Queue: 3 jobs
Job 1
Amino acid sequence: MPVSTIPFGPQHPVLPEPIHLKLTVEDEVIKEVVPALGYVHRGLEKLAGTRDFHQMVQIVERVCGICSMMHAMCYCECVEAMMGIETPPRARYLRLIWSELNRLHSHLLWLGLFADSFGFESLFMQFWKIREKVMDLQEATAGNRVIVSVNVIGGLRRDLSPEQQQTILNILDRVEDEMRLLEKPLLGDYTVMKRTKGKGIVSAARALELGCVGPTLRGSGVAQDMRQLGYEAYGDLAFEPRVEKDGDCYSRLKVRYREVFQSIDLIRQAMEKIPAGEIAAVVKGRPEGEGLARVEQPRGEVFYYVKADGKKYLERIRIRTPTFANVPVLLAMLPGMCLSDVPVIVLSIDPCISCTER
Amino acid sequence: MFPMMPAILRNFFSKRATRRYPPMTREPFAEVRGELKNEGSVCTLCGVCAVKCPSQCIVVDKKNATWQWDPFACVYCGVCVDSCKTGSLRQEPLYRKAATGREIVSVKIVLKEQTK
Ligand code: SF4
Ligand code: SF4
């Protein structure tokens, strides 16, 4: 059989973000994959030299639109740890609530896009219709739809009034109800199973070896979730990572579908336990030394490294995003698969390219 | 047999999920961070907002007594509003309309001392 090379991306209908995969195929079966990244590099880490460490909160929010809240939270946690700031308990719960709202809308976005990747357009519309409710919640509570911008070093800039908390709970009830209605068309559908079961299998050992993170790792049967570290208020709430065994696209789909309910449950628990009080600690001085922080984003573990020498500007900030860690495992999933399965498998890791390239 | 049926039936008997934008818009939420406004009457031209703004889109010109804001570079984060001590800045709950050209919003500030 002659071997041919087919480019996937950087412009591809299934993925609005630019990643280029050079696929070597033999009779439509993938033999080799070579990725090319760097189409949307923006140099955000370099901006640490021209924006002070307070302004960097707004910069890191823009690393990724979908999980902006978690980027800012991770950065703030890192700097707070370096400066020895204790955030007030209420701020820890509020951060949890907003980050779970972020996770909710991110997973709903992905569920829609994934349905779209195998051509199930009506399901895509259903998920995005539900997602709109969560976006409206973010807009009503934080002031912005996408980049919620609620974090400051030391705590938060916005509080949730009792009425707002009730609105969130009411709308989440409806979200949950509508999600249950879509369980069968998503997980019990013949076509969906045909397109996702047994595709892009990666074993638990291989996933760990390649440094895979997040729902992609949990879809392979490894119960690892950074929320288990108990940062912010996660330590106070009952929480078990969602795990599926098979390691194929269907498992990853199931993990994310179940995590939507987990997020709703976490927000409900947090609303019950949230204490009253201050939402931000007083911040004096400047960070010095080195700091690390890890946070579980919708796509997996994000890692922040900050180095400072007590000046106004940080010396170095380094961001390792979850998709960066998941690209090697994607390359391991593809060989042996059919060309028509590539969009589904690529989407199954929930790639966020602009995040990866910062 | 027809797994999508319950969702389809519910959609039939519920309100439409979309609206005909732009003629039809929904009420803005009260706390939305929309267009930035400088009242002007209490602004002291201290320049704190210009220093704090992460996208560096505010220019405070003390000599000509103007406060300038570039709405196209602004990211609507609200940091300037939070940092203004005099309460001269606020954000409307409405977003700016689409524009055909770029413009800089300039507000002439009359300082209190001068009006006395
Ligand atoms: S708007 Fe507020 S912060 Fe900005 S110059 Fe005027 S008084 Fe100072
Ligand atoms: S809202 Fe943010 S970006 Fe816009 S002028 Fe104020 S501080 Fe600058």
Job 2
Amino acid sequence: MPQTDITSLKPLFVVETPPYIHNGVTIHGMMRDTLLALAPAMILALMAHGVAAFRVMALAAGVSVLVEAMCVRIAGQKLRIEDGTALISGLLLAFMLPVQAPWWLVTVGAALSMILGKHVFGGLGANPLCTPLVGWACLSISWPKYMNPSAMVLNTDFLDPLLRLKFFGTQSISPETYKALLMGEQLGGLGSVYIGALLLGGIFLVARRAVRWEIPVAYLLTVYALGFLLWHIDPARYIAPELYLLTGSTVFAAFFLATDHPSSPFSIWGIALFGVLAGAMTVLIRAYGTHLDGAPFAILLANLFTPLLDMIRPVPWGGRK
Amino acid sequence: MKLPFILTVPDKRPLEELHGITTLLVPLRGHTPAPGIKKRVAVAANTLLAVHPDMSLGEIHAPCHGVIKDITTRHIEITCSETPPEGSQPVAPVDLSGLDEQALCSALKELGVSVRPFTRPCKTFVINGLNPEPGMVYAEEVLSSHKEILEAALALVKRLSPATEYVLALPAGSHSSLDGVRNHFVKPEYPISLARPLIKSLTGKESSADITMVRLHDLFGLGLVASSGLPRTRTVLSVQGRNFLVPVGTPVQTLLDAALVSVKPGDTVVLGGAMRGQALSVLRRGIDKDSEALLHIPAKSKPPLEDNPCINCGACIYACPMRLRPNMLSRYAEFEQYEGCTKEYLNRCIECGLCGYVCPACRPMQQYFRNAKKALGIETLQRRLPL
Ligand code: SF4
Ligand code: SF4
């Protein structure tokens, strides 16, 4: 082969494979949109808890980014910190932690999320479970006391609606308090309690095509429908359907956790079933399980079905052969 | 309608001709120079330059008067002149009437036409009257202002093709027509202009048996020969939204200058459409008979391709007109597990580029598919896709 003189190729053009146009939705853009979608809830959290909330969010995000950098280096992969996936994972985890979570809890959670929830499986795109939920699950099982928002906050006027509904009867929360619940005046995760703000952010995410609308819609509809069914059967035993949405991390999970791309199915039917499955499990865990908030575990369980749901495939053009 | 995929333009864009071209780089595609064609030989326009043993590939002729400056494996460079240079032999038109099918085929090959698409066994012959890809805008103009050329071509096609039915696919609302050809209207949105989607819209069936589809571009090329009896030495192409009728071999640089495009380092110059074209590394290259567009893509107008992993978002699955799973296909291809590609129906992929258009990970989807197709011996766009 004769050596090509590089100077003879000047000016240098970019030679790529087609297509030469792109719709503009990139991983980086999706993460930026997610950050924007989380912003209202973040601001509300900072307004309510100040430095305490900032501490947890910054720590979780920082540790996630650092651990990701380390894992990528060890695995000899390309460093992709700038795509923002680690930062967002960290923030999503922080949203589910109590504001008063001790620093070591946040650190361990973020590190476990990144290592067990992402990098042991091969990094970006390869996680079978929603990354921040892995850390959350480890913490919830290992240190349930520290993960319990009402145990962590002693003097507060806010109520922990999950605890109340479970142990003080289904009528212990009246519709008058709904607006307060929507505004986040309840105990729960640092960011996941701002139901209204998250709903707004979620709609923004869907509009920006950063997540597929089918997942939150299928999920929330299922939660409401099943909740309605149970409540219809025995209103004394089961809570009103809207309370599944107004309390706990259901709305947060619908838009920010269930929609995690790698751990959710990719075909339309797969996605719809995934949403239904996760929704049904959320309600069942809350109605019958020992765990107060159903959503996170429900999503994790649904994640396990993803490979199965991905076996549903469209018939290719011209039929199967 | 998705904006970048609309295949029609509202206004008329006439075919502009270029004057004062000084150099042509007539591309060779495995052709060998004809006897007597050497450096410094003077040729008149339409002189035979190079031949190919394959019956289905047309020969190559001089698009202008001039002197041969250089011959490489890729092209023959001609320095053009206004009048026939001394020592050149003028070329007379060929009379194509009265030839039987066999003789007509060889005559057309000798006139530089690739005849295969016109002779393919079929019942229905479809003329694709749509601009094939975003970035091409010549179809309306050719159909409305150069109808006689198309009809001259059609007269030849009717002698060559066994088809019993002729169909012209048009964008909805078009007033164009061809004699003896049934119109078929479609919503002009990419990828309906590609063979398989178009045939589905025509027959309702997902099979291209008994159907031949040719591009308007190919029919127009045949028409140029049919109406003059002279070799195929000119071609029509769109450059940045304008249409040109220029000699084959016109350097890309010349066309970009004519279209007032200045290319800077880091930009991309594409020969062909925005979805399936080929990016050029140098501008010293002549356009070929089947070049349909020339596009300038400024740097940073799209996110660059990266070797990112698939994040499983499913966007490509929604986009794929062949209902494939490009995510799985590209992953198998990426890791060279080509049996997996076969199981995912790689042979159905028409390289429409839509999966790459939507992929948020900006994966080089076409690159993966082409590698896999090459490994599996499936024809790719570089070697013309079958129907
Ligand atoms: S290029 Fe992509 S979208 Fe187009 S047919 Fe092939 S796999 Fe499908
Ligand atoms: S669009 Fe890209 S990232 Fe999304 S599933 Fe397809 S290949 Fe993967």
Job 3
Amino acid sequence: MVEYETHSHDVLVVGAGGAGLRAAIEAAASGARVGLVCKSLLGKAHTVMAEGGIAAALANVDERDNWSVHFADTMRGGQYMNNWRMAELHAKEAPDRVRELEAWGAVFDRTPDGRILQRNFGGHKYPRLAHVGDRTGLEMIRTLQDYAIHLGIDVHMECTVIALLKDGERVAGAMAYDRERGRFRVFDAKAVVIATGGIGRAFHITSNSWEYSGDGQSLAYRAGAALQDMEFVQFHPTGMVWPPSVRGILVTEGVRGEGGILVNREGRRFMFDDIPENYRSQTADNEEEGWRYVQGDKNARRPPELLTRDHVARCIMREVREGRGSPHGGVFLDISWIKSKMSDSSGHIRKKLPSMYHQFKQLADIDITSEPMEVGPTTHYVMGGIRVDGDTQMSTVPGLFAAGEAAAGLHGANRLGGNSLSDLVVFGKRAGEHAARFAAEQSSSSLPADAIDRTAREALEPFDRASKGASTEGPYQVQHTLQETMQELVGIVRREDEMVRALDCLASLRNRTARIAVTGNREYNPGWHTALDLSNLLTVAEAVTRSAIERRESRGGHFRADYPEKDTGYAGFNILVSRDTDGSMRISREPVPAMRDDLRQIIEENK
Amino acid sequence: MGTSAGDSMDVVESGRRAAERSDASAGSETRSATFRIWRGTATDGRFEAYTTGVSEGMVVLDAIHQIQAESAGDLAVRWNCKAGKCGSCSAEVNGRPRLMCMTRLNELDLSEPVTVEPMKAFPLVRDLVTDVSWNFEAKKRIAKFSPRAPDAADGTWRMQQSDVDRVQEFRKCIECFLCQDVCHVLRDHGKHDSFVGPRFLTYVAALEMHPLDTVNRTGELKEAHGIGYCNITKCCTKVCPESIAITDNAIIPLKERVVDEHYDPLTALVRLFRRKPQ
Ligand code: SF4
Ligand code: SF4
Ligand code: FES
């Protein structure tokens, strides 16, 4: 009935950012026939936006660093909600993954003795982020892309997956449409890796592009997989706030790593005012010590600007709320002050933070070498996602794997800067390896013709509605309302009554989505694409809201004004989201597995 | 342990001044502007005019999005980062190849309609979107990076910063293909079969100057990649949003390498000129 092209692969990787590319490389290297689906052109994924660096205990700059310190930092930053097995593997394997990038052509900044240079970042005890100025993500994605194109991987560019297909319990492929012509494609695959990134588009102020509509989380959920930790959304403390059209664009934490300070309108460096108990012993208590730290003094402790992102974001919100913000409702982030400390500060800033210099100059008329920036929190990352096995990255659905931001576990309640790029390559590799192994063990499967038919029909409904001329509305307005709702009611500061209201709004948005009509035809039609993405956005928005209601405490990225303290009663479980047989969303609590003794000891030693 | 140093008040003062200046330059009163946007395909298309409100700090891409939401739901445009980092939103604004997300409306004359049209060097898909797949194929034909064996005691390599500065300059490329769009060899002469264009000459330069790489690409540069077609007009360098010195730092040194091994009259001439004492 419906027309489509069929493509057959052993492993289908959905998403071509760092995690997807690394998974595809690994699967192809093991001999699997690999298909790689990208929502945009190859090399444009959100990974290019990562600025600061990739965290790995190479110990090139401070020889005291090793995997166990990195492990302990990651667990502390995640408030011990992390999947500890993933945190262990990540800390152990990240250095090899970084060296591998170098062997594939990446050119990191160098130490004086010619090794990979590492910089300071929030929550990392030692300088740990390998970097290339402030465009590390671009370096990483280009390296992986240029390596992957010689491995015989079938790349499907500008192609969006709209459903996973199953054969009985296991995954058997996926269905997609191509942007250019709007035709359907069916992928027959023995294993599928989801590496579609995050959900940032569910919020109004975000550093994420249009692509981050929670596709992977929603596809997996509809295919029966469990999601986990969806209440933990990271609001990055420093997004641009002015002018309005650039609101939300990321300002790298690297600015603070290089010595940038946060100041309120009274000229107070307010980050010294509130240093959490579990970081007090590691944090400088005066400006002079903080400066020595960013200059590389190994005996100094880090300045409070480099506390974890959740904490810094809340301190900024407090300043703004209490009337001490900057003219456009943020605070000041200043790197230019270092001119009092070094002779060529302007050249230094431009060398270390070239794209920040460029970004502010061009978009805001601000010269960051001589003036402060105005910054405020922006939706940046979701710690939660598809629940996976720590070793293999397989979800609760056989044959369905997930890696990178789309997967949950590594970061717990809050992600440390720099741990995302390393997450992508460590677990991208693992997902690719295990997906290929799983695929090799499967006999071929049959694709469900009825599901293919239904998916196609539903996808085309917005066009039919337009021709029938019933009461309809456009996709952009509905998307906008959804983003405003989540920003207002389920944002940085949450309350039960507001979130319950958000659920009502989401229900009515779902009804409105069922009435959306789009104009034009199927070829490269962004209105249609927006309409199709909406159902994913609604699913993840509901998952975030329901999980956030369930966690009646404040922890990491999840802050409840009605329960502002951490509650140890909530430390023992992760919140899971799954689809009930009647199609409704079910929330459950899953105890955090007891940690291995040797790992527990590492945490004690690093307290 | 809060601090309130005199220094920090300077920060506030200069921050306030910057904010005011930014308000002024952004133009706080709301106006409107007209955009002439290419709609349709190469064979069946025309410019259509859309008028939309202009608010503070807007870039061309914002205007396009606003028009999409208000009156042209199916207006095709490619974008991702909206911060000049992904190289997706290339188009020609008032005839100049630009990133739409980095072109502020206050640099344009809004008393006249602003023309926005797709890149010319590639086949048109629809509206502002072109088929750039040729670029991905061209890259595949370039001999891949092949490092020498690790030679440091720890099984890796040592490279000095000064030895990688130049390569890092080339690796800033965001693959926006604006340089390809403006190069007359591709745009006017359609030599896509025999010339890889400035983006990929820069890519070859990054590989050739990589301290670890072992391959010699001068043969393929001359034959398959057609470096001889470039007559150093420097149009590519002028449009590069990453300010990469494509001609001076990448193409000319490559031409010199080629000329050392394979004679190329134009480069020989350039070289003679460059070597003249000032
Ligand atoms: S300098 Fe060469 S590559 Fe650049 S635009 Fe001119 S002819 Fe093309
Ligand atoms: S060299 Fe410059 S203009 Fe050319 S593709 Fe790269 S960033 Fe764009
Ligand atoms: S949208 Fe990424 S460069 Fe313009």
